[in-house]
Amino acid sequence: MSNEVVRDVIVHDMCLRDGMHAKKEQISTEQMRTVAAALDKAGVPIIQVSHGAGLGGNSLQHGFAPHANEEYWDAVAPVLTRAKMSVLLIPGLGTMNELRSAYEHGVRAVHVATHCTEADTSPQHIACARELGMDTAGFLMMAHLNTTAGLVEEAKKMESYGAQTVYVTDSAGYMIPENVVEIVTALRNELKPETEIGFHGHNNLGMGTVNSIEAVRAGATRIDASVAGLGAGAGNTPLEGFVAVCERVGIKTGCDLFALMDMAEDIIFPMMDHIVRVDRSSLTLGFAGVYSTFLLHANRLGEKYGIPPRDILMELGRKKMIGGQEDMIEDTALTMLKERQAIQAGA
Q1: The pLDDT value given to residue 1
Q2: Can you spell out the DSSP letters for 41-98?
Q3: Alpha-carbon distance values, 111 to 12, 61, 119, 178, 287 (Å)
Q4: What confidence score (pLDDT) does residue 60 get?
Q5: Is 24 within 8 Å of 230 (Cβ atoms)?
Q6: Do the annotations mark residue 202 as ligand-binding?
Q7: 50 carries a ligand binding annotation
Q8: Is 291 known as a binding-site position?
Q9: Which CDD domains does this entry report, sorted A to Z (predicted)?
Q10: Does 256 belong to an annotated binding site?
């Protein structure tokens, strides 16, 4: 009898990478082991493990984690019996040498991530991943800032470089179901049949689960999510909620729903520094189309300069700022402060 798990969609947990954003990069190796073992036991096939910004992310700009990525991979690898580890690599932030190190430490899958208009920064890194024999995905971030035709063009580039999967990445949690269906359908019609399509959503508008379900119905076969939604902004698509809806509508994930429910209550919620949910600031991220990882920056700077974080986030959305421009958030807040002080002085 075959032990192969039947799946219509491959779910990919983000707790130990995107969740690092929500934890201000402070996850211990022991917590990594506990979460990874529970995910593996629940039948989750791929688990992303790294600094929140991926390879090369351990920095002043993105925040320092208590351990190097190699220490996290060495902590997680021994507890995995079925799942494989993945990483995020943003060319220019992470390097191919770091990717090779990840492989040596047991990582077997990678998201090679670029802004949604910059796929041409990724060919060397995608080629390197394929040479290593890794499960290789192109990851088009802030996808709402490109047209559907533009995303198809960028996805075709990644496919031509060797990506086996191309992701539509709703980094801002801005999309509504009709956006997701239009984009995934276009990609499914234009990419090679063997190229898989993935969807990575954030829950800032409360659309994470429904957007992920609609992505699958439109042709996506890979969905990123995280247990209890642990991730940036209002979190990723909550994995247990997604799996529950999949069971209701007949989509096979191969995951143990009750194990994921228990894991959310017993392991993930107690880990949270704050309950990751749709609140005033995270809802603003989705409404204004702002990169989800900017949430904690806006909250911190809002307190520092006495400016409502919602105002800062709306300004970042107006400027269409993207990942990698974290150092400009404080400049924006300072400019807003000076403008407000000038208005008060002239009143």
Answers
A1: 45
A2: HTT--EEE-S-TT-TT--BTTTB--SS-HHHHHHHHGGG-SS-EEEEEE-BTTB-HHH
A3: 11, 21, 12, 25, 26
A4: 76
A5: no
A6: yes
A7: no
A8: yes
A9: DRE_TIM_HOA
A10: no
Kindly report the pTM of this predicted structure: 0.95
* Residue 212 marked ligand-binding: no
Identify whether the C-beta of residue 287 lies closer than 8 Å to the C-beta of residue 313.
Answer: no
Burial class of residue 249, CB neighbours in 10 A (0-12, 13-18, 19+): exposed
What pLDDT does residue 345 have?
85
Domain end call among 247, 271, 295: 271
Task: List the end-to-end C-alpha distance of the chain, in Å, as a whole number.
Answer: 80
CA pair distance 39, 207, nearest whole angstrom: 23
Statement to judge: residues 198 and 301 lie in one domain: no
Give the catalytic positions in this structure: 21
Helices and strands (DSSP H and E) totals, the chain: 15, 8
- Total structural domains in the chain? 2
* Mean pLDDT per 10-residue section of the chain, whose length is 347 residues: 79 97 95 98 98 89 89 98 97 96 98 97 98 98 97 98 98 98 98 98 97 98 98 97 98 98 98 94 96 92 94 95 87 94 84
- Domain span at 137: 10-271
Confidence at residue 347, expressed as pLDDT on a 0 to 100 scale: 67
